[in-house]
Amino acid sequence: MDLSEWIDAYAAAWREKDDVAVLELFTPEAAYHSSPTQPPHLGHGQIADYWKRATDTQSDLTLVFGVPITQGPRSVVEWWATLRDPQWQPEAANDWVTLPGSLILRRDDQGRCEQLWEYYNPVFGQKIDAPPGWGA
Asked: Which domains does the chain have, with CATH numbers?
């Protein structure tokens, strides 16, 4: 699986809230760092549990990815998402979340992810489109 296919499959798994499909993208012992300051989700079991929790209350997802950058086995790609999630920040003015972020990943020879670092900056209560030139 090449990187473009991996990103497309990751996006589809997010849109469909599919914890089974997302696991096909990761090695069985993969580390998924959803926060740089928290312990990673290790292995398929923890990754599936995280994916279910993270996507369960999301709706109306609009998601685009930028052009990835790769050096050796490591790649980085930006994303820009807008979604509704009434549970994430219930005190926000409304349930819209704008979620620009990036993934840093290391993949094995078969294209499956061995390690993923996720960074994002949520803006609660607003639906903001990506600025011109974003992701290029």
From this structure: 3-124 (3.10.450.50)
